[in-house]
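FORM 12-B: Structure-to-Sequence Request
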């Protein structure tokens, strides 16, 4: 049986979805083709950089967000595509595969290529740009012929727990294919600019209107209402990047402080988390709910460990905490120290004793009018709308510059098998 295409009836729109602000929709002369994004993150997991940016693209053209394949537990299912419409205009695309492909990468890539080719043909996706969040997606996509290829490198994925061993090699291949490389922070940019001639730093930005709601009246969430004060908060994915021992020491050294942890626990054993009476795990929350939780905190924290997985991160939550009006204490993550620590907008501490002292200082900071004004002055210089527009400008420039070649590539016949593609040998990093 040939691969089938079954468009799913619209599911419940993601509760995380937030429409881009008006300034993004007023941008003139948008001329980009369809955008196909290959991602390792589920669209409905945590609302972060991909959702902020691609939601804005979707206000101007078609966006297809291709997630990792879903493997069934049997071989009865035929390869097919599931399409989930989200209320911001993004179409989430998931290829379903039988169990037998789970441990056969070549067969899996071939099946995904065939299903996606059929789906794109059905949707009349003929002129398109590729946008990658993971180099691992090259296996199913390297034989397509996009007009433009962008690698939005938001993290150093090779340093994350359970990263595929071949990820670094795939990234070198993606550097050869990519017209543009965007990075999620300055530290990551300093590493990637040595490997691609057209790299650009786009650090974590902010939806000020959304998080600014925390400065006004909001109802207290029911699961936080009964927690005593002062409240020291953290939100984000609870994984190998969280400094568990720092949290444990802080909770033990300061039993009068209540530590509120919001976010899903992944890739680590929940049993390793501290369970003192003053640590409260509230689980994952929708993006739209976060301002109400932030409003109820006295201090917000970035409890990141000093390890390989945090070496290049640029936490989006830094400006989000500040936009909500919360004083912030962080471990010395380079993209937090620069600029937030250097500008004395965020307290930086690298051990439990100093972190506790910094929290004690931050507990009095809300009355500091100078700190608040300097914080707001800095936040006024950044936004996801501006980040998106700057990216669009670069993409349009590259498309214009390569227009003849792009037109030729668009007419190239696709290979029919992954095995027909010759993978280029990556040069040594420059």
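FORM 12-B RESPONSE
SEQUENCE OUT:
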């Amino acid at each position: 049986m040939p691969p089938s295409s079954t468009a799913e009836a619209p599911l419940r729109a993601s509760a995380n979805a937030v429409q881009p602000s008006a300034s993004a929709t007023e941008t003139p002369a948008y001329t980009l083709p369809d955008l196909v994004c290959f991602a390792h993150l589920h669209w409905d997991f945590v609302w972060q950089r991909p959702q902020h940016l691609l939601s804005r693209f979707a206000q101007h053209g078609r966006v297809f967000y291709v997630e990792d394949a879903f493997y069934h537990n049997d071989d009865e299912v035929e390869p097919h595509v599931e399409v989930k419409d989200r209320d911001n205009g993004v179409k989430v695309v998931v290829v379903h595969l039988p169990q037998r492909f789970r441990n056969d990468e070549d067969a899996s890539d071939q099946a995904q290529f065939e299903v996606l080719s059929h789906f794109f043909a059905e949707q009349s996706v003929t002129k398109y740009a590729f946008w990658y969040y993971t180099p691992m997606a090259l296996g199913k996509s390297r034989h397509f012929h996009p007009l433009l290829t962008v690698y939005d490198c938001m993290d150093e994925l090779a340093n994350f727990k359970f990263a595929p061993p071949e990820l670094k090699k795939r990234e070198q291949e993606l550097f050869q294919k990519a017209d543009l490389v965007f990075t999620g922070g300055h530290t990551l940019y300093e590493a990637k600019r040595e490997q691609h001639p057209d790299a650009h730093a786009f650090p974590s930005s902010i939806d000020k209107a959304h998080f600014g709601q925390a400065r006004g009246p909001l109802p207290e969430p029911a699961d936080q209402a009964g927690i005593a004060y002062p409240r020291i908060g953290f939100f984000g994915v609870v994984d190998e990047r969280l400094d568990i021992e720092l949290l444990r020491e802080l909770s033990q050294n300061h039993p009068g402080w209540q530590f509120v942890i919001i976010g899903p626990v992944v890739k680590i054993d929940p049993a390793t988390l501290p369970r003192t009476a003053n640590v409260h795990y509230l689980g994952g929350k929708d993006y739209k709910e976060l301002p109400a939780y932030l409003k109820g905190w006295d201090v917000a924290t970035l409890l990141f460990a000093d390890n390989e997985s945090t070496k290049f991160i640029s936490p989006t939550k830094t400006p989000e905490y500040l936009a909500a009006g919360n004083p912030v204490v962080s471990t010395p993550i380079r993209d937090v120290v620069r600029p937030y620590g250097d500008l004395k907008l965020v307290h930086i501490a690298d051990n439990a004793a100093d972190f506790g002292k910094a929290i004690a200082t931050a507990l009095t900071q809300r009355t500091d009018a100078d700190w608040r004004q300097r914080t707001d002055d800095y936040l006024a210089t950044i936004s996801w709308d501006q980040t998106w527009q700057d990216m669009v400008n670069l993409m349009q420039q590259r498309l214009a510059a390569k227009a003849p070649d792009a037109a030729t590539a668009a007419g190239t016949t696709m290979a029919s098998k992954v095995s027909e593609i010759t993978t280029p040998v990556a040069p040594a990093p420059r």
